[in-house]
Amino acid sequence: MHNDLMLFSSLFFFFVIITFTFGQQSTLYVKHGEIAELCDNRSTSIYAYEYRSFDGKKNLIVEPTKDDRYSNPYRTSLLRIKNVNEDDSGLYKCPQDDTEWQRLQIYSPIQHVYLSNLHVTSRTRTNDLCGMDNNNCLVMIEGESLDIVCAADGSPRPAFDIAFDKSGPPPTIMALAGSIQLPSVIKNQFKPTVYEAYRIAGLTPQDNGRNLTCRVDMKQVNEKLILSSTKQVYIEFRPTVLEKSRKIYLGVNQTRTINCTVIRANPTYIRYTINGLPSSIIHRTYSEPNQMYFTFDITPTSTEQFHAFNVTANNSIGYDTCNYELIHGGVPDAITQCTVDTHTSNATTTISCAKSYDQGDSDGYTCVLFKYNGRDHEKMFEEDARTKSCIFALIPLREPVEYRIAAFNRYGSLPINTFGYVIHLNQPIMRTEKPFFNKKILVVIGSIFGGALLFFFLCCLCGTCHRDRTKLSNRNNFYQKDTFPLAMEKSQIVSVHQIQSSPLSLPTISSAISALVDRERIIETDN
CA geometry: angle at 312 spanning 307 and 314, to 5°? Predict the structure, then answer.
């Protein structure tokens, strides 16, 4: 027991001595290529300095007279080293000082920091954000780990720190062990002195677009020696759809618009495929410019076309499926045939309608009689009666009334104001007054006036031609000096007057028109 205590005490005091000897020394940092000055500027006659490397593998005596880089500029204990390099880093003991060692650390500042993928996958596509060969991003595929490497120059070894931004929960970051080959793209830009490889697991599509920063610093040398590189995480993932499973109730020859909506996808170039439906019932397809949803219209024409189908949304990474179940069940067709019986019974008016197609719900099919009220716009159609037989018995009313008949089932009904069958009862008969002159009389009167005017025009034309012919004959007689008997001239004049006076006189035409009008009135009165 006593021996163990003595041994422990010896080790403790040895540790204290080592700590006091080596650990209490401050470190002098000098930039590579500059001048370092060690030891105090004291008078001495010894110009030899003991040197020991940090790892203890190198020990030697430095004599300024034997190397041009070493000097004593003031002939004192001060040691000046010109154009320092990494081999000058270590512990120096000054002359006439047996206990104090000075630490000299030569450093090269950080000039380059590079952050990139450790492995470049060929499955990703080049885009404008990430640039050529995706150099501006950290690219990965959904479901895979993101392996990255951060490289930097500078010595001594700088400190590394990998961190995501604060926009989401921090993922798990692990350091990759083993022989990691440095990407050639880093070697082509600079010669790194140190690099670290990391694996980031558990990234999801929600992490797409987050920033990852590799931060390198040499704070032990200078608080300002900090350099970092930040890149955006670009995750390509398969589409995720909204309509995972949906039931669609529809009737035969009825049209429904189907939407397949993609919540997220990267890349957004998506191809849609309809599976399980005949092309004859697909009428129109259209999609958004960015292709995040797909819309089409279907109109089944028979009950055999009601079954499950799906729409596949596919991009270069994978696919997701919108699943639908097409079920026969829609609002019934409009009623198109009804008869009104007001003669069989004086106490009842019967309305009988032929049932329309029930569209898959025969048990719930019902006919409803609505009374139209045009004065109340809020409640224009008021339900009066309903029956499954589609036969209504009404108590006769004297005032005019309008009814609408519609069919409904558990899926609803068509709009009453548009598709309701219209029935008018007790509508007043609108008698139109006959005009004083009907079309037949106007045609006869027009024919008579037209004939008279035509005959008068012809007579005037004939008289004009006769006078012109008489003037021409008189002119010929004047030149030929032939004279006609006066009696002949008189006879010609008399014949002209007879022709001109031959048309009917106006009183005769007026009396004829009055007689025709009276006759037409007598015929209409008898009818």
Answer: 175
